[in-house]
Amino acid sequence: MSDERRSRAELPEELRELNAQVAGLPEQIERRFDPGARALVVSVGVLVLIGSVLLPWIGGSPGWQVFAGIASYGPLPRLFTFTLIAFGVLGSMLALVTRRWAIAFVCAIGCGISTVNGIWAIWSRQIGADSGLAPPQVGLVLGAIGVLVLTFTWAGVALRRG
């Protein structure tokens, strides 16, 4: 037997398990991120998004009613609620809990798409305000601003991967 095999055979079981765990650490570290102070920005951003869904979006209807389909104001505001909740709220919480780089990257892209959806939703309500359509209200605008902040925060985390 070679010296390396003999030395491994002589190691106690606990040390062999520890050796296997230590050998896998570099791969685990590469897949994870440390948000640092950005975690607070993301947490506040998620709370802002949750608050925006509770505030009036269009015609006095809160965002959760637009999300649930109770209040129908066209496809763009409803699409924005789906992307806001999926990427801005649920994705951000999942990324902070797991600290996986891939999830942070998906949140950066998804929040960017949601930002565009939010701007389209606001625009679609503003161009029709003169013809009698209900204009956007504070919740819709706050949601678009909140998801924009999350876009840049997640992009900073995703681009910082070393």
Helical content class: over 70%
Instruction: Bin the strand percentage.
Output: under 5%
Q: Strand order across the biggest sheet?
A: 1-2
The SS-based structural class is mainly alpha
Please characterize this protein's 3D structure:
The protein is mostly helical and 162 residues long. It folds into two domains: 1-31, no CATH class; 34-159. Helices cover 75% and strands 3% of the residues. It contains eight helices and two strands. It has helices spanning 3-10, 13-23, 25-31, 38-54, 63-68, 75-98, 101-127, 138-159, and strands at 56-58, 61-62. It has a two-stranded antiparallel ribbon. The longest helix is centred in the last third of the chain and has 27 residues, at 101-127. The protein is elongated, with a radius of gyration of 23 Å. The two termini are 41 Å apart. The mean pLDDT is 86. Keywords: Membrane, Transmembrane, Transmembrane helix. The chain crosses the membrane at residues 39-59, 79-97, 102-123, 138-159.
Task: Give a quick set of tags describing it.
transmembrane; membrane; 2 domains; two-stranded antiparallel sheet; 162 residues; transmembrane helix
List the helices and strands and how they pair.
Blueprint: H1 3-10, H2 13-23, H3 25-31, H4 38-54, E1 56-58, E2 61-62, H5 63-68, H6 75-98, H7 101-127, H8 138-159
Antiparallel strand pairs: 1-2
Helix pairs in contact: 4-6, 4-8, 6-7, 6-8, 7-8
In short:
The chain has a two-stranded antiparallel sheet with strand order 1-2.
